[in-house]
C-alpha cells in the first residue's frame, strides 16, 4: 500500500521552491523515501496552519516575514493536536515537535542558500529538548524466536520466506529497515559482505552470515513467475511492488502478539539487538559503530548503557545480598 500523496497550500513561487527542496533532498542529500515523506508532511501541515492563521495562501514573501511568535504558535497548535491523539503522552509529543523544527530549519536553510527567502526568526525558536532514550533490544532467545515464527504466520510460501529473509537480514547485519527495503535484486548478497547505503548517502560494508545469505536465496527461489528477473526491488509486496515499511511493521506486531513481546519489539529492535548482542559477546565499540553506519561514536555508546543495565539486572537477581539472602 503506497503512502497518500502530499498536498501543499502554497502560491506558485513557494510551490516551485518546495519542489526544488525535495529534489535537493533526494538527489544531493540522498534522503530516504521515508525521510522525504516525513519532511513533506511536516511542511504541508505547517503551510496549512499558516493559511488558516494568516488567512491567505502562503508564498515566499510570507515566509520571509514570519515572526518567532508565529513559529511558536504553530508548535503550540501541533502540541495540542499531538496530545489529543496520544492521550497526553509527553515524550511522544516532544519527539514530534523536535522533528517538526528539524524539518522547518532544513527548509528555511535551503531557501536562504538558494536566495529565495531569509528569515532569522526561526533561529530564536527552540523545540522541547528530547531526553536521550536507551535502545530497547530483544533478548537473544526472543530474537531467535522472532525469526523462527516470522515464516509461520503467512499462508503463501514466498511471502513467509520473504519475512524470514528480511528479519534475518535486519538482525544478522544490523540494517535499518529503510536500508533493507531500498535494496534491489542485483544487490542480493552472494558473498561474505555487501555494501549498504545509509543515511546521508554514506556507504559501509557489512559482513553477511551464511544464514542471512541462505534465507534471502531461499526467498528468491520461491518468487512467483515474473518476479524472479534480475531487476527491481529485492523485497516485494504481495502486488509485486517494493515492500512497504507499514507491512513489515504489521507483520512484526503479529509476531509480537504471538510471542507476548513488549511494544518495543519492532523491526528496528532487531537492529538494536544486533548491536547489543555483539557488544555482549565482546564486540569492539568502534567496529559496531562502522557496522551500524553511525556518524558519531556517541550514538553507538548508548548500547554500553543497555549492556550495563542488563548486567545490573542479572546481578540483582543472582547476588545473595541483592536478594536479601545471607551469604
TrEMBL record:
Chain ranges passing through the membrane: none
Classification via Pfam families: Phage_int_SAM_1, Phage_integrase
Chief place where the protein resides: cytoplasm
Superkingdom of this protein's organism: Bacteria
Keywords on record: Cell cycle, Cell division, Chromosome partition, Cytoplasm, DNA integration, DNA recombination, DNA-binding
Catalytic residues in the record: 176, 199, 268, 271, 294, 303
Subunit text: Forms a cyclic heterotetrameric complex composed of two molecules of XerC and two molecules of XerD.
Protein name: Tyrosine recombinase XerC
Organism: Phaeospirillum tilakii
Amino acid at each position: 500500500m503506497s503512502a497518500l500523496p502530499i498536498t501543499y497550500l502554497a502560491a506558485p513561487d513557494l510551490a516551485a521552491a518546495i519542489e526544488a527542496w525535495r529534489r535537493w533532498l533526494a538527489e544531493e542529500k540522498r534522503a530516504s523515501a521515508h525521510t522525504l515523506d516525513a519532511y513533506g508532511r511536516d511542511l504541508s501541515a505547517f503551510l496549512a496552519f499558516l493559511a488558516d492563521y494568516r488567512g491567505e495562501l502562503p508564498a515566499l514573501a510570507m515566509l520571509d516575514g514570519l515572526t518567532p511568535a508565529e513559529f511558536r504558535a504553530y508548535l503550540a497548535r501541533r502540541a495540542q493536536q499531538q496530545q489529543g491523539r496520544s492521550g497526553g503522552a509527553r515524550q511522544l509529543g516532544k519527539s514530534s515537535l523536535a522533528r517538526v523544527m528539524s524539518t522547518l530549519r532544513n527548509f528555511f536553510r535551503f531557501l536562504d542558500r538558494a536566495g529565495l527567502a531569509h528569515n532569522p526568526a526561526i533561529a530564536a525558536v527552540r523545540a522541547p529538548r528530547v531526553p536521550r532514550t536507551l535502545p530497547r533490544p530483544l533478548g537473544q532467545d526472543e530474537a531467535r524466536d522472532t525469526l523462527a515464527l516470522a515464516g509461520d504466520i503467512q499462508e503463501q510460501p514466498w511471502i513467509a520466506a520473504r519475512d524470514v529473509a528480511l528479519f534475518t537480514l535486519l538482525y544478522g547485519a544490523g540494517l535499518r529497515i529503510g536500508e533493507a527495503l531500498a535494496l534491489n535484486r542485483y544487490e542480493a548478497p552472494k558473498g561474505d559482505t555487501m555494501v549498504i547505503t545509509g543515511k546521508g548517502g554514506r556507504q559501509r560494508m557489512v559482513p553477511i552470515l551464511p544464514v542471512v545469505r541462505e534465507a534471502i536465496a531461499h526467498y528468491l527461489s520461491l518468487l512467483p513467475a515474473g518476479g524472479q528477473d534480475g531487476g527491481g526491488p529485492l523485497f516485494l509486496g504481495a502486488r509485486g511492488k517494493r515492500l512497504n515499511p507499514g507491512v513489515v511493521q504489521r507483520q512484526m506486531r503479529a509476531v509480537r502478539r504471538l510471542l507476548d513481546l513488549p511494544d518495543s519489539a519492532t523491526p528496528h529492535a532487531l537492529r538494536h539487538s544486533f548491536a547489543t548482542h555483539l557488544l555482549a559477546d565482546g564486540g569492539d565499540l568502534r567496529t559496531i559503530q562502522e557496522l551500524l553506519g553511525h556518524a558519531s561514536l556517541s550514538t553507538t555508546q548508548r548500547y554500553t548503557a543497555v549492556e550495563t543495565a542488563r548486567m545490573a539486572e542479572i546481578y540483582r537477581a543472582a547476588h545473595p545480598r541483592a536478594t536479601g539472602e545471607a551469604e
